[in-house]
Design goal:
The protein has one domain. 26% of the residues lie in helices and 23% in strands. The protein has three helices and four strands. The protein has a four-stranded antiparallel sheet with strand order 1-2-3-4, with no helix packed on it. Strand 1 and strand 2 form a beta hairpin. Helix 1 (24-30) crosses helix 3 (47-59). The chain is globular and about 40 Å long. Keywords: Acyltransferase, Transferase. It comes from Thanatephorus cucumeris (strain AG1-IB / isolate 7/3/14). InterPro entries: Acyl_CoA_acyltransferase (IPR016181), NAT9-like (IPR039135).
Length: 99
């Protein structure tokens, strides 16, 4: 969803950022794990399909998708909006909006 396109939610242990194209490679690697596919009720996708899915999720009006980044040092000060993207990616979370 474009609503969260420039949103970062910064907590003590994690940071939530929008699912962007630069996250797709790592996300796609995770989704090659059969156990993870089963646990998330997901279907295997090619890298190109995963890129298409990221664009769809970004543009979807009823869904917010965030990537979870780990803050190894909770005292670390975020010096710029882009500096959070250097943190390690550890998961994702989706919010589905319904009227």
């Amino acid at each position: 969803m474009r609503l969260n396109e420039f949103t970062a939610i910064i907590g003590q242990k994690v940071v939530l950022v929008p699912y962007r194209s630069e996250h797709v490679e790592q996300y796609h690697k995770w989704m090659q794990d059969p156990e993870l596919l089963e646990l998330t009720a997901s279907e295997p996708l090619s890298f190109e399909e995963e890129m298409d899915m990221q664009r769809k999720w970004r543009d979807d009006a009823d869904k917010l998708t965030f990537i979870i980044l780990a803050r190894a040092n909770p005292g670390l000060v975020v010096t710029s909006p882009n500096s959070v993207y250097e943190l390690p990616m550890i998961g994702d979370v989706n919010l589905f909006l319904k009227d």
